Amino acid sequence: MTDRPPLLPFMRETAAQKVQAAEDAWNSRDPQRVALAYSEDSVWRNRGTFVTGRAQIVEFLTAKWAREREYALRKDLWAYDGNRIAVRFQYECRDAEGQWWRSYGNELWEFDEHGLMTRREASINDVPIEEKERRIHGPRPEAERGLSFPLQ
């Protein structure tokens, strides 16, 4: 078993590092890369979809990013305690018809002693936006790391 630092218990700095690492991985839109942060038997609830294990995570993310074009994400640390982290996030993408969306959500994460996420629960709401309303254009610039992203 390979450790995925930072490891437990989380402190503010290490929880923030975990959140930024997740944001960076998701912004890569590489399902294989993202899946490596999760345990082999990780369980997810993403909206109304339930996923178990890395293979299903890869399958889920592959389909997600085929639908959600030009996906770009921001995550913010909300709370942490021991082996758990709560995150709020926003992402923007466009669909096949060209409609832009901003999605707001909250995630609850639980980790094992190796720093792998064993559980992820995500609640997400979608808001249609005009292209001119976009605020998230690709991965977070270095100068913005550690800064909270505004709600609107």
Work out the strand percent: 35-45%
Q: How are strands sequenced across the largest beta sheet?
A: 2-1-6-5-4-3
Mean pLDDT, nearest integer? Answer: 97
What's the multimeric state? Answer: single chain
Structural class: alpha+beta
Largest sheet: 6 strands, mixed
Q: Low-confidence parts, pLDDT < 50 over ≥5 residues? A: none
Distance between the termini: 41 Å
Short description:
With 152 residues, this protein is an alpha+beta fold. It is 24% helix and 41% strand.
Could you describe the 3D structure shown?
The protein is α+β, with helices and mostly antiparallel strands and 152 residues long. Helices cover 24% and strands 41% of the residues. The chain is built from three helices and six strands. The chain is globular, with a radius of gyration of 15 Å.
Labels describing this entry:
single chain; 152 residues; alpha+beta; 6-stranded mixed β-sheet; 6 strands; 24% helix
Helix-strand layout with pairing:
Blueprint: H1 12-28, H2 31-35, E1 38-46, E2 49-52, H3 54-67, E3 69-81, E4 84-94, E5 100-111, E6 117-129
Parallel strand pairs: 1-6
Antiparallel strand pairs: 1-2, 3-4, 4-5, 5-6
